[in-house]
């Protein structure tokens, strides 16, 4: 049973002809995009707004039409994955490094649908290190402020070099002792000069698609 495929494909049932769809990033969204590509081939007419260069490239390969913000009036639906989901549908996102564009699109969408296999479900957020996107300038000072907030930041690296987001920023993966009050932390984080955005998506998800104990897709709202 491919759990990511099951939840990723289920989300396409929300996609209707003529919609503008925010296209998320990650390995679950990979299956959503494959399915959307097949539906487009069968005649579905949509415009996609990609949340990353990686998603844009895959969408182009699948002939999913893409649009820019200047060409659309609204985003009907955003579909995206998550790294952690709590019982209130609050999320930690950013494992794939696309959190800034993902959050902009999720916030702009009329409906935000999250696709996450059962391994992402948690009682309280925080087992997954919280990605915090920062500008490279003064990164050492930003790290210091994050420590003062109780975090233990680690600069994300790829092959020994600092990871760069599509917007050229760094990501600090931060372990916090407790994320019992994520909404307060989200506000505190974004007050730090140098922080661009963080991976706490609080009160943003409208629908969660995951699997029940029989491995059948189940929706939570
Ligand atoms: O970066 C993100 O938030 C992505 O959506 C990603 O982390 C989701 O995880 P997945 O690759 O397991 O679907």
How would the blueprint of this fold be written?
Layout: H1 3-10, E1 20-23, H2 29-41, E2 47-50, H3 53-61, E3 75-80, E4 84-85, E5 91-92, H4 99-108, E6 109-115, E7 130-134, H5 139-148, E8 152-155, E9 157-158, E10 161-162, E11 170-175, H6 182-190, E12 195-198, E13 200-201, E14 207-211, E15 217-220
Parallel strand pairs: 1-2, 1-3, 3-6, 6-14
Antiparallel strand pairs: 4-5, 5-13, 7-11, 7-12, 8-11, 9-10, 14-15
Helix pairs in contact: 1-2
The chain binds D-4-phosphoerythronic acid (DER).
Walk me through the structure:
This protein has 221 residues and is an alpha/beta fold. Helix content is 27%, strand content 27%. It has a six-stranded mixed beta sheet, with helices on both faces. Strand 4 (84-85) and strand 5 form a beta hairpin. The longest helix is centred in the first third of the chain and has 13 residues, at 29-41. The radius of gyration is 17 Å and the shape is globular. The mean pLDDT is 97. The chain binds D-4-phosphoerythronic acid.
Keywords:
alpha/beta, four-stranded antiparallel sheet, 6 helices, 15 strands, 27% helix, binds D-4-phosphoerythronic acid, ribose-5-phosphate isomerase activity, Ribose5P_isomerase_typA_subgr
Q: Major beta sheet, specifics?
A: 6 strands, mixed
Which band does the percent of strand residues land in? 25-35%
Mean pLDDT: 97
What is the approximate shape? globular
- The helix-and-strand class reads alpha/beta
Q: Strand arrangement, largest sheet?
A: 2-1-3-6-14-15
The proportion of residues forming helix, as a percent range, comes to 25-40%
Give the ordered list of helices and strands. Answer: HEHEHEEEHEEHEEEEHEEEE
Estimated radius of gyration: 17 Å
Low-confidence regions: none
Cα distance spanning the termini? 24 Å
Number of strand segments: 15
Number of helices: 6
Bound molecules: D-4-phosphoerythronic acid
Organism: Mesobacillus campisalis
Function: Catalyzes the reversible conversion of ribose-5-phosphate to ribulose 5-phosphate.
Binding site for substrate: 25-28, 80-83, 93-96, 120
GO cellular component, one term: cytosol
């Amino acid at each position: 049973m491919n759990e990511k495929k099951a939840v990723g494909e289920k989300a396409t049932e929300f996609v209707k002809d003529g919609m503008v769809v925010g296209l998320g990033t990650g390995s679950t969204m990979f299956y959503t995009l494959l399915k959307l590509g097949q539906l487009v081939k069968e005649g579905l007419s949509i415009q996609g707004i990609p949340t990353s260069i990686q998603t844009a490239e895959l969408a182009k390969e699948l002939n999913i039409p893409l649009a820019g913000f200047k060409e659309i009036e609204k985003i009907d639906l955003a579909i995206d994955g998550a790294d952690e989901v709590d019982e209130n549908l609050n999320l930690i996102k950013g494992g794939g490094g696309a959190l800034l564009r993902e959050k902009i699109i999720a916030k702009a969408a009329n409906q935000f649908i999250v696709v996450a296999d059962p391994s992402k479900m948690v009682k309280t957020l925080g087992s997954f290190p919280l990605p915090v996107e920062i500008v490279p300038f003064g990164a050492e000072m930003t790290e210091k402020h994050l420590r003062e907030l109780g975090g233990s930041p680690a600069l994300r690296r790829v092959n020994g070099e600092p990871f760069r987001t599509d917007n050229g920023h760094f990501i600090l993966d931060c372990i916090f002792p407790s994320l019992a009050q994520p909404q307060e932390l989200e506000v505190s984080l974004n007050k730090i000069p140098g922080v661009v955005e963080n991976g706490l998506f609080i009160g943003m998800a409208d629908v969660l698609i995951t699997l029940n104990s029989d491995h059948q897709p189940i929706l939570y709202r």
